[in-house]
From TrEMBL:
GO biological process: NAD+ metabolic process; pyridine nucleotide biosynthetic process
Gene (name only): Nmrk1
UniProt protein name: NRK1 kinase
Family: Belongs to the uridine kinase family. NRK subfamily.
Reaction catalysed by this enzyme: beta-D-ribosylnicotinate + ATP = nicotinate beta-D-ribonucleotide + ADP + H(+); beta-nicotinamide D-riboside + ATP = beta-nicotinamide D-ribonucleotide + ADP + H(+)
Highest classification ranks of the organism: Eukaryota, Metazoa, Chordata, Craniata, Vertebrata
Amino acid sequence: VTNGGKTTLAEKLKKMLPNCDIISQDDFFKPESEVETDERGFKLYDVLDALYMDEMVKSIRNWMKSPTRSGVVTQEPQNTCDNLKDTEDVYILIVEGFLLYNYEPLNELWSRRYFLTLPYEECKRRRSTRVYQPADTPGYFDGHVWPMYLKYKNELEENASNIVYLDGTKSQEELLSCVYSDIIQELKKLRE
C-alpha cells in the first residue's frame, strides 16, 4: 500500500542485518512522458506499465549472481547479537515496492514475502502529507491510487501464497521487530 512504511522498514532492516542491500521499485519508474494518462487526466503510475519491470528483474538477478560486487558494504550490523553469528557468508537483498508480487517473473525469486496494509482513511491521510513529483491531482487518490491498490491486493490474494501480512498502523518498532525476528529464523534454518 502507498505510504505503508515499506521504505522505512527496509532501511531499518538494512542497518540491522549483515551484508544487506536494498533494491527499490520506485527507482524503476518510467519518466512522466512515458506514463499513460486516463480519460480523467490521471497519470497511471500505480500500474505495472508505469515501471521498467524488466530492468528491475535484471538488477535483482545481477545482484543474486554477485552480491559481493553489488556495492554492499560488509560491516557489523548495528544490533549485533548471537542470532547473527556465522552469517558473514550470507547476503540479504531486500526488494521493496508496491507491485512486486503481481509481476510473474519476480515470483520465483522470493525467499520471504511481506505485505503492508493500511485502512483507507489512514492511507489517504498519510498520502496527503507527502509531496510527489508530479504532484497528485485532485481526486487522484480516490480515482486511481486506492482502486489500483485494491485491484492488485485482490489479485495477490487469489494467486500468491506464503505472504506475511503486516498491519501498517502498528508502530515502526513493532513492524521492525516482527520482520527482523522472521528473518533471523530464516537465517537459523540456513545454518542447520
